[in-house]
Amino acid sequence: MKKLAFRVLSWLAFSALLWGCSGDNGGSGQGKNVPPPVRSLGSPVEVFRDEWGIPHIYGHGRGNVLFMQGYEMARDRIFHMDHFRRMVYGTQAEVHGEAWLEDDITKRVIGFRRLAEANLAYLRSRHPDVVSYVESFCNGVNAYMEDMKAGRNGAVRPIEFDRIDPDYWPDPWQPVDVVALAKALVFTQSFQGPLEMLIYLARFLLFDRHEDLLRFQPLKPTFILEPSATTDFDAFDVSGIRGGSRPWQDHAALPSADEETRRKVAEGLFRMALRLGRAFGKSALGASGGSNNWVVDASLSENGACMLCNDPHMTLDIPSILMATHIVDLDEDETGAIGNIAPGAPMVLIGHTQHVAWGLTNGFGDVTDLYQEKTCNRGKGVSYKGQCVPMDFYDETILVRRDGGGLADVDTVRKTVRWVPHHGPVLNDLLPDDIGLLLELFGLVFSARWPGFSETSTDLVCMKEVLDARTVEDGLRAMRYFNSGVLNWVFADASGNIGYMAAGPWPLRADPVDAMPPYLPLPGDGNHEWKGFRNVSSQPQTLNPGKGYVVTANNTITDQTLDNDPLNDDAYWGHFFDLGTRAWRITERLEALKGAGLFGINEMRALQTDDHLVLADEFLPVLLESRAVLCEDPGSATCRALDILEQWDRRCNLDSAGAALFGVWYTHFVLRTLQDDIPSFLLGMIGPYLSQVASRDLGAWLAGRGPASGRDYFDDRNTPQVETAADQMAAALQEAVAELFTFFGPSRPMETWRWGEIHLKTFSHIAWDDFSLGPFEKTGGLHTVNPAEYSLVQEDGSIQGLPYRQSAEGPAFRFCVEMKPGEWRTFNVLPGGQSGHWGDEHFMDQLPHWLEGESFPLWYLREDVEAHAQSYRLYPAGFPGES
Question: Are the C-beta atoms of 827 and 601 separated by less than 8 Å?
Fold first, then answer.
């Protein structure tokens, strides 16, 4: 958005002072006395467990504390840890059977095990201190497994292992497992291959319509680094609506073929994207992967302390994907670090110390490029800079357990996967041989480049550096080690400072992005490579912004996409960010709280479960303008529905008739408008992503912003008459009322229709359906702060029926902290429980509170921990020993 006078360069004012250097320039442990990994405790460690089963670990020396973190984590989650490791390595079919084979192949194509082995070797040479801490953690996990086998020290074999097989025992936990899990977690949040393949697929199928329908401009004009709250698009120059031809049209050339062949090619492209999109349990291509976090400085707080809140939106399986942790190295201080972590990894992922709090969301930054390769030497190499560069070939052997067989009763599947040395995995290897060969026949051979495919990833070093931070500035400096993907980091410290950085390895691309858009596959000939990465000082960031807060909810980082063109700015950060409703609503509420005076942590906690539907703010006023048409008979059902909608508070609570009416109306409105313009099989393909696309389009078109082609998408091309937006809205309401009468029954009063009855959530177990929980009635709606996404269509592209089933993603926890020294107040809740083992009292004890929007204190001060302790263990020096 070059025409704006305002430039989002606020970080430059302090970056020269903040950054003396950047990058991995010597290693965090080089030249230091690296502590040996702990194999048995060098001094006693105490473990208190509170009323939620959360362990609070106190010991002297970080190695001792991390050893016991591993031991107690295994007590809670050893099955979950082992399952996650198999998911990452692609060995699930070995114990669960053929249904898991396809996903195993996906993981072998990506090659997480190979990547982690090379990455670990690098870390050993450059950061031996961090590897020592990881080894101490792994030794603790393995000590628990040995106790579990021996039946000592209260170690219990979970029933899930017996469910696999009575003879099943997991392999020992290794540092390479930690490195692989860390890499996989960042991959799920920052690899944009599925989205970019979806954009290419849309271009393939929609021809000239794809620029109208795939809109980069968000629905609401808010961006992370804006200096103050935005009111509407009038503040921005939106005259440059993207349209017409560009000189880059041929760089992602599409094959010329008959319709049936094009459909098969489209199926291949879609399956490629879907396999990547579902690689870690997401419900479908385009599923959320989002999050909310925000940080408020001390000047706005009633207690004179910064506040930070975070709820990462991840897969809502059971056991919950993340868990709580509290580790205290008494050699450092009396309070330690508390927050949440992924089972199988040490330290704290999101949380706080007595000095600094930090949170993460998906940055949606574009650090992924797809390349269209030209093969050579009979398919053994790729053309690169005028030469035929050999590809790497890996022969993968996958064991597949036979149905009803024992652990040794397996079939062997062999799969050769290819790797382009200068880019990454060949994505065609995700496909069945016949479809893969068809794509290759048309020259559609794709590889993917992502910074995390490098052996030099130092994300674990970043976690350690954040734990050691004393100020926000220290936290920002630690970002020089975060180099696998881009995430939005927010920080707050005990001195009243706040900060933000969209941190990660931002590529410096060889081409001007307006000539060679990185969101389409680039020629793999060597002329379109990365020249390096942005210096950390030039990455988007701010320290103590004047408005007193920072909000991130996967929305655009700068004003880059607000004119619908991500390519015409001084800096390119990404393309298809979130549509902005969550960030808009959070900002709106913070501004209202500011206007009313000082506010506190309880207002922040309530905001995490805000269920106000911004979509209703956008579209309901336009629908209400049709009252004269819909209320020709004031006693009609559609007129009564309009009355309910007009009086509705626009919240998606369980008892809301307005939410039920609007939700079903919106589904019909979207389908009535777009089903004649998007092929039904493509509608079915994009599934949960349809609302992200449609809401941008409909909001812009109703406001007179496009489409660029001038095409009238409200007109149904399959009818002789010309329909208007008002016609489609009115017809959609009539259809919605009829569908709801069918669901609730003709005699039930419309005022008693409940959103909760038509909006349900099931928590699927990671391995077995009969361990799943639900369905439960679920608050929230499409793109609310409290997210509750669902697909508007079925897999065949037809309209979704009732009840709506929330997709797999949502808040993996809700965390808030007030950073007042000596009086820290921390709150948390998981969508399940601390334990990952079925039948444990803490397996799902937090789920009812999560569903009700409640969180509870995470006890941080020792006197609180002791007061709420339900159990206590003292592990002596020398543990585990023989007893």
Answer: yes
Report DSSP state, residue 332. T
Query: Degrees (nearest 5) of the Cα angle 700, 704, 706?
Result: 65
- Identity at 197, one-letter amino acid code: M
Rounded to whole angstroms, the Cα distance separating 255 from 381 reads 22
The whole-number average pLDDT for the span 634-659 is: 97
Does the pLDDT value for residue 253 go beyond 70? Answer: no
pLDDT higher than 50, residue 648? yes
State the greatest distance between any 2 C-alpha atoms of the chain, in Å, as a whole number.
Answer: 85
Enumerate the domain spans of the chain.
613-758
Q: What is the pTM of this model?
A: 0.95
DSSP string, 614-636: HHHHHHHHHHHTTHHHHTSSTTS
Amino acid type, 635: G
Residue pLDDT, tens place only, 817-850: 999 999 999 999 999 999 999 999 999 999 999 9
Q: How far apart are CA 540 and CA 11, in angstroms?
A: 7
Identity at 672, one-letter amino acid code: R
The end-to-end CA distance of the chain, in Å, is 67
pLDDT above 90 as % of the chain: 84
The DSSP call for residue 799 is B
Report how far residue 644's alpha carbon sits from residue 839's, in angstroms, rounded to the nearest whole number.
44
Task: With CA atoms as reference, report the closest residue to 192 among 39, 367, 413.
Answer: 367
Question: What's the rounded Cα separation, in Å, for the pair 600 and 820?
Answer: 12
The CA distances from residue 508 to 224, 263, 477, 505, 519, in Å, are 22, 35, 21, 9, 14
Instruction: Give tens-digit pLDDT for 117-154.
Output: 999 999 999 999 999 999 999 999 999 999 999 999 99
Chain position carrying tokens 């030099």: 456
Coil, helix or strand at residue 42: coil
Q: Which helix (H) or strand (E) holds 338?
A: strand 337-341
Cα 502 to Cα 363: distance, rounded to the nearest angstrom: 6
Q: Tell me the CATH architecture of domain 613-758.
A: Orthogonal Bundle (1.10)
Given a contact cutoff of 8 angstroms between Cβ atoms, the answer to whether 674 and 766 are in contact is no
Question: How large is the average pLDDT for residues 465-491?
Answer: 98
In sequence order, the β-bridge partners of residue 602 are none
Mean pLDDT of 625-648: 95
In angstroms, the CA 144 to CA 138 distance is 10
DSSP 222-269: --TT-SS----GGGS-------S--TTGGGG------HHHHHHHHHHH
How far apart (Å, rounded) are the C-alpha atoms in residues 441 and 383? 16
- The C-alpha atoms of residue 133 and residue 129 are separated, in whole angstroms, by 6
